[in-house]
Amino acid sequence: MIGARRAALLVLCAGLALSPPGAEATGGDTLEELRALTELEVLDRQISRLQDEVVRLSVEAAEAEHAERTHGEDLATAEASIALLRISAGERLRAIYHLQRRGMARLLFSAASPAELRTRARYLQALMAADRAKLDEHLKVLAVRTADAAKIKTDKERSIAARDALTARQAELQEERAGKLTWLKKLRRENSAALARERDVAKAAFDNQVRELQPGPAALDDPESDARVASARFEGKKGRLPTPVEGTVTRGYGRYADKDGVSVHNPGLDFSAASMSPFRAVADGEVVRSGYVKPHGQTVIVQHGTYVSVYAHANGLQVAQGDWVQAGQVLGLVGSSGLTESSDGQLHFEIRENGMSQDPAAWLSKSSLRCARDVTVCR
Question: How far apart are the first and last CA of the chain?
């Protein structure tokens, strides 16, 4: 795991470099959690790549198995054809043998003329040559199909062996990942108060950072500016935007009591989703931030004029700052990075105008929302 540790260190350094001003790590506990999260991200990436390879090899093995069955049928057909040719040729040879016993000369020389004699002789020779040619042709086809079947069998066995080896390696990484998740949960239990304070400080810094991303007054004063046009286009989709991820809303917008009974404001929607599943842009826009942002961990912010959409707690980002993305484009993979209360797969989603949070449920299509039983935003 030397490579994984080195990759984790690189991701850690990148994450610290992307943290907003004033949101540096305040202690060993926070750094230790960040290290756990970045190591989890490295493992998740490895597991995802292995899963892709396992799927590819499984498809190869299935295709090889199908080809093996098809070639087996062709081989059986070729062998049956050769057997029929041998039977036919054998019967013809036996007929000629009996004819010779009764008198081949009588057959040939009973011809009415020398020309008919030559015709009869050529006919017999042609019959025997045709039988020989058909048999040779079928034997060649049989040899080719036998060789193909052997190659297909070898390829299938190689694909299956490689797939099984990757599956075993994937199981090892999953076990290692489970251990790190247990460690991360323990860290969060032991440092919940410190993490809550850290989260509050980081959220304030994040709010300031988002406000700084908004267009300046000059752009907003001009009704023909790109910012005003983009804003109007985005506003026109209110109530019709797609959900950013295939998952369930576990917490709505607004105030709620955390596990310690403290009143906390949630500036967006929290989705529970399968870890490493994709999340997507809800509308066209420019990526103005992609990287580690406290307290949200791996985060993508997409600008739509005076509005931004925020996608947080990812494990693996697939866009970079400055990219233009289309609605429905994959931005990254669901994870649990940042200061969260859970280590399960989740996505925190926000919509803000001029830095002020809005209830995303008012913007998303109700028909596309799926909520937990105690969450009312879907009603």
Answer: 48
Looking at the DSSP bridge assignments, the partners of residue 241 are: 364
Residues 220 and 118 both lie in one domain: no
Query: Quick one: tokens of 167?
Result: 């599956």
Closest CA relative to residue 297, chosen from 355, 345, 360, 361: 345
To the nearest 10 degrees (0 to 180), the angle between helices 28-109 and 114-190 is 170
Q: Which run of H or E residues covers position 330?
A: strand 330-334
Dist. CA 290–CA 287, nearest whole Å: 7
Residues 135 and 219 in one domain: no
Cβ of 74: how many Cβ atoms within 10 Å?
Answer: 16
CA max distance for the chain = 120
- Whether the model clears a pTM of 0.85, i.e. scores above it, the answer is no
Rounded Cα distance between 130 and 103, Å, is 23
pLDDT in tens, 90-133: 666 666 655 555 455 555 555 556 666 566 567 766 776 776 77
Domain presence at residue 243: yes
Distance CA 82, CA 212 (A): 82
Q: Nearest to residue 229, comparing CAs of 340, 335, 307?
A: 307
Rounded Cα distance, 267 and 256, in Å? 11
Spatial distance between the Cα atoms of 119 and 113, rounded to a whole number of angstroms:
10
